[in-house]
Amino acid sequence: MKTPFYSDNHMHSSASFDAAYSVEEMAAASYEHGLSCITITDHRDCPVFLFDNSRAMMGVSRYSTQQAAKDWQGKLEILFGVELGEPLQEKRAAQEILRHGPYDFVIGSLHNLEGEEDFYFLNYEQHDPRDLLRRYFSELLEMVLWGQFDTLAHVTYPLRYMPKGMDLTPFADAIDRVFRTLIQKQIALEVNASGFRQEIGESLPGEDLLRRYHQLGGRLITVGADAHAPADTGCFIPRTCSMLRRLGFTEYMIYRKRRPCPVPLGEE
């Protein structure tokens, strides 16, 4: 039987502020976990980019990824990407980060609203989650309209940290607008597998939203475990691929030189 081709396209190294392991360590674990391809997508958060050590870390990420790609050639494909956080909150930084390419892959993400802390740190007794979600989906739409990235990451990110049981029904129209704009602009939707190993217990987005994206005609999908440590490389990627097949998707995308390359979701 042919070995399945699994790729993890959202992964962080010690060149991210919240990770401590080298690209080499992440690559070795990825190989051990049966992955065929990985993309290193270290964080570059635009609101703080002009004031922290991000410029230096961009160089570290690039050099380390290029070196690892040489070291693992023929065994594991290693691509160079970036997670572009909150790009509309500091467009000068976003443009500088994008110029630092060429990248294989650019992830667009939103971890906090302008003027607010990361959703991870918010006190939800002091903030109305419904108002936060309204603002969140509005900013996501603005990001997609700006559109200078290849995939939109973990669109239900706030649900990782909000009180359990948040109902997204009131935001259905806002989410549809995000999905329709992604489809129109041919930007992929990321299926982030990290939720399977966290309290939320589902991918980001979950099955209901992925089913809706498919109903609207969405077919461009990327998958990633959002690993910050070797143990999490490729974690739940096979489960994510099985879920996507069940929902009617036939392939996901790897990006090389900012171009989507399909990977069939064949049987394991």
Please render the helix and strand layout as text.
Elements: E1 7-11, H1 23-32, E2 37-45, H2 46-49, H3 54-71, E3 77-85, H4 91-99, E4 105-109, H5 129-146, E5 151-152, H6 172-185, E6 188-192, H7 207-215, E7 221-224, H8 237-246, E8 251-256, E9 259-264
Parallel strand pairs: 1-2, 2-3, 3-4, 4-5, 5-6, 6-7
Antiparallel strand pairs: 8-9
Helix pairs in contact: 5-6
Number of helices: 8
Number of domains: 1
Compute the number of strand runs. 9
Please describe the biggest sheet, giving its number of strands, its sense, and whether it closes into a barrel. Answer: 7 strands, parallel
Kindly report the average pLDDT value. Answer: 96
The coarse overall form would be globular
Low-confidence stretches: none
Distance between the termini: 9 Å
Give the neighbour order of strands across the main sheet.
1-2-3-4-5-6-7
Assembly form of the protein: single chain
Q: CATH homologous superfamily, by name?
A: Metal-dependent hydrolases
Percent in strands: 15-25%
